[in-house]
Amino acid sequence: MAFELPPLPFAADALESAKMSANTFSFHHDKHHAAYVTNLNKLIEGTELADKSLEEIVSISFKDPSKVGIFNNAAQVWNHTFFWSSLKPNGGGIPTGTLADKIAADFGSFDKFKDDFKAAAATQFGSGWAWLVLDNGALKVTKTPNAENPVVHGQIPLLTLDVWEHAYYLDFQNRRPDFIANFLDNLANWDFAAENFAKAA
Ligand code: MN3
Questions:
Q1: Is the predicted pLDDT of residue 112 greater than 90, yes or no?
Q2: What is the whole-number distance in angstroms between the Cα of residue 50 and the centre of ligand 1?
Q3: C-alpha 101 – ligand 1 centre gap (Å)
Q4: How far apart are the CA of 145 and the centre of ligand 1, in A?
Q5: Distance (Å) from CA 103 to ligand 1 centroid
Q6: Which residues pair with 130 in a beta bridge?
Q7: How far is Cα 38 from Cα 61, in angstroms, rounded to an integer?
Q8: What percentage of the chain's residues is helix, strand, coil (to nearest 5)?
Q9: What is the whole-number distance in angstroms between the Cα of residue 102 and the centre of ligand 1?
Q10: Cys staple from 14: which of 10, 46, 113, 177, with CB 3.0 to 4.6 Å?
Q11: Is the pLDDT of residue 134 over 90?
Q12: Element (H, E) at 141
């Protein structure tokens, strides 16, 4: 069964008031994410990976020099689907409930989490991702290069931000720090992070 491009969980223009334009999604979802799906399907067609789940393909191909292209495309399909759910209209702000308590306990304060997340996202050199993860029961902020994600390191992702230039260049040009701050202030989907936390707990 070939993989399919999942639709965005919101209208392409739903985040315009939060400075993420429909034009960005027309490229980022309709072109970039779509290309990863198309490339993955071509690369696994007729191979032993064709009937595996996306998560299995990511795990099997990680660090296999003969499957670099498969890993890059499979992980990018997974990461982007997770990223769309990490955004929502009228998002950002401060989480509530048990996740908020856990952030306060593990980072010291929500502001400390924000500082750590901003630093990870801003200092990922070149392309990659910033994440809030659960690692052996503790919340951590991490960053990964290119297509890599926390799943291959045994961590459970709760929330992510794509910091590839294609994620922000149309709306923020080279101002990655503004894109990161805008995500935390206006877009981060804490409901999604709380669901992931509840499932993992
Ligand atoms: Mn991207």
A1: yes
A2: 24
A3: 30
A4: 12
A5: 26
A6: 143, 161
A7: 17
A8: 55, 10, 30
A9: 29
A10: 10
A11: yes
A12: strand 138-145
